[in-house]
Amino acid sequence: MAAPRTTRPRRAPDPRRAALQQRLRQQTRRALIGDGPAVGVDIGGTKVAAGVVDGDGRVVAQLRRDTPTKSPQAVEDTIAEVVEELASQHEIVSVGIGAAGFVDAERATVLFAPHLAWRNEPLREAVERRVRARLGRRVGRRTVVENDANAAAWGEYRFGAGRGEARLVCVTMGTGIGGAIVNSGRVQRGRYGLAGEFGHMIVVPGGHRCECGNRGCWEQYASGNALVREAREMARAQSPVAHALLELAQGDPEAITGPLVTEAARAGDPAAIELFEEVGRWLGIGIANLAAALDPGTVVIGGGVSDADELLLGPAREAYRRTLTGRGFRPELRIVRAQLGPAAGLVGAADLSRGWG
Ligand SMILES: [Zn+2]
Q1: Taking 80 as the threshold, does the pLDDT of residue 298 lie above it?
Q2: Residue 214, pLDDT above cutoff 80
Q3: Which of 42, 111, 156, 193 could cysteine-pair with 345, CB 3.0–4.6 Å?
Q4: Does one domain contain both 94 and 235?
């Protein structure tokens, strides 16, 4: 009779143990870095905003630069320049960089940035090298790169409209849509760092073309770009209802901008109000989809379009209620406006670099 096999089957890794180890590593890192001032940098398509953020989320110093045109190196030089300037005046514990793009799970490389020239760009290393060359030393204990929407969501979770919410989703409505998920005090980055790209969920197959290459993405219907596109179209059609908008734009449909539509809507212009109702409706439909997938308790709406406040959020809540699956038989989430304004991204990036999230 053959001897029984004695090799033990290989044990599957214990997920609880892995999670515990990760939490311990994070706590150790936070303890090492501490709660001192951190630099946050928010890189947008047109502006680089940087600041020193204290442990309570207050911005104690701030700088702004234009984002240099297409060269990735020029943008990196600008980031290094602002970090150097802030670090030469403050004792900095860490540096967080929020970038509008797909950031890898290591939080070091920008894989792809639709509005910037980065393709597989090792941003963390590039910035650290430049800062060292300028200052002759490294700044802080750590530099991390974050997706800008994740950074803004973290800022709202820690210091703004999302405080105390265990299941939070943030939707940042700028030119496009930035999305982020914060669960139990952690940013949900997904397996490859790319979770939360809600703006590219397809809501209208075959609809408007998106910069991502697809058609009918949510951000083509619920964003600043969508608002401006519809407003200009209305004005170009010489519709009498667009009279007030055209007058504000001095007769040029191409001069209509998001803030201009907001201004008109606040002043009671029916056409501008209608444009916000339409964008708000699409926002609410998308949020109902997010509720089906993620079941959050609060959705925070930020970005420039949210300046319209209830003119946008009112129609969004209504459309959300009409579209929600299982409506009438489930609790409804809260839809609220972000509180930190344009600083959310840099505040969140700085705080995340201390080892949070
Ligand atoms: Zn898209």
Answers
A1: yes
A2: yes
A3: 42
A4: no
